[in-house]
Amino acid sequence: MPSAGPHSFQQQVRNYIVAFYQTQRNAFVVIITLLLSFYILTVPDQAADMINAVIDDGVFSRLFQYILLSTFVWSWIVYGSTRMILHISPVGLRLNEESEVLLRWLPKLGGIIPALILAYAFWASNRWQPYLLLLESGLMPFLFLWVERRVAVFRLPEHWRFSDRYTSFKQDVRELWRHPLGRLVVSAGLLLTAFLIALLSLPVEWEIARRLRPTAIIIFGISMYTFWGSLVVYFNDYRYRPLVLFVFVYLIVVSAFNDNTAVRRATDLSVPPITQRPTVEAHFTKWVAARRREEGDTIPLVLVAAEGGGIRALNWTAETLIRLDSIIPGFSRHVYALSGVSGGGVGTVFYTAFLRDVAERNRIRQFEQFRNVIRDDYLSAVSSALLFPESIQRFVPFPLPALERAKWLEDSWAGSYHDNLGLQTLDSSLTQLYQTRDGYNYNLPSLLLNGTLAESGQKVITSNLQLDARYFKNVVSTLDVLGSDVPLKTAASLCSRFPVVTNGGLIQKDTVVGNNSKQRYGGHVVDGGYFDNSGVETCIQLLNNLVPFIRRLDTADRVTVIPYILFVQNSNTIGKLPQKRSVLQEVQIPLLAFFNAWDNGSSTRDNMFNSFMDRFANPKTNYLTLRLAYNAKYPLGWFMSDSVARSISQQAKDSISLKNRELVRLKGAFSRLGVQRSVK
Description:
single chain, elongated
């Protein structure tokens, strides 16, 4: 009820604070989703690049229209959900003049925030997009006022009547459905959910998600989760029926039974058994024989380490290797192995598939098609799977493997490769990549894709080679654990499952324990960057494995093998003293320590390994680093705007050239050794 007399300013402020707390403690889920949305859409470098891609497309582009539409839907969901919680069945609300004002205006104020968040994300004074979003935000309260006055279902009551007595779940359902606005909000929310899940669960090959692009997909996802969070809160009664707690506990319990992350296996009859994979010794012997021309020959052997870094690393790695191919005759044929981590590992897979599928004389002509593959949008598919199909899996108490988002990411890689190059190479198995009609293809570099076993912290390597445990100590071999091969696209994902965007991939095997019973052992493979983001350590392990054979060739056959370790780096190498961070330091400081130490680890290892290689005399090993000039705008996710892709490509053209003294030295070495391009 309104107060009897006028309040002082301080009393009014106090009353508004109390009223705001009383109303918003029920609508806290809306506030939380808005705050999370603000962070997701404005803070990460990936978010900025997604926005830049829309800006580059123009104000009349299809992508920006999708964003205007999704933001409009989001605004209505916030407005309707807030009214459902506050106006139909609030719990323990003490009415006064201030609370009545807030009850009337908070839903409308909440409804304008989505467009304001997007306007801030898009803000650039010389662009039209943020001004159009501000216009949308400014029009929303007038639209809300209009429907409240002209449309009966939205009309506000003259007086609020709330009961503080306990009501059963059945009574709350009946009350919500009897209320015209409640029935409309629930019906609209259910229809929106069904439509979005059905639309974005269609096969990746249909490219629905790719047409919408990640920004609009994320906004639609936020809208759906806002509705469902509000519905749970509506039925929640913190005194008698803590439904939020019940849902939370249920999700924890069913997560023990619905793990759908088991990795794909390649079980087709045409896939050779993994026992037929060559050992490092056997492979190296045949590799040398394929390049040796005469006694006393000298053969360069290149081991490439591709650092992790999402699509930034994917592009830099692929661009770098293709550029090296073009300026150093015979380079790719003398790359013995590629050690890849995260996005760098995906780049090595794409590069190796390209080498296999396209003859050397045709590569320059088809490089633009290959560029389309490495620059494609891979975030849309994985984000749509995360927000929509996987939302079903979280509540179903048994696994539905087809809904796992990492598989959608894998399919988007394979689909893009097929669309641009007309081949289904990434759908074939890892070992099939090296099979030809004439036998094993020793002209392709071997792949060592680095992951991390979350449950033990061990390094996991997915490779076409059988690794020697004496040199790869405490390393888990993916194919040996599974007892079978995996598709090439799955091998790529097993080194690039970084947090949140993708989940860990489950690998397991049956092991006989003491009482002759079988027990399953294994774990979830996550991003290799957790263990070593450089990939150089694996190169050194492989080199140590090769050293006895290299020395034997030198002594017995008078064949000299000269190893090169080439580190393709894309992380920030400039260390400088930062400014302090004090806000929420108990939370922020440990996270900053973890992620920044992770990011700087590659530079430390680069300096250490470079120094170490100078002491490696027999055989004399050369160590080179090719660095991307770091730019904070280069994203780490799975989406890259055309402007950033062009910038990285230009850097590759400028720095991976014969102006680079290290590359002049490398090319000179190849020339002195008589290395020539393949004529095939």
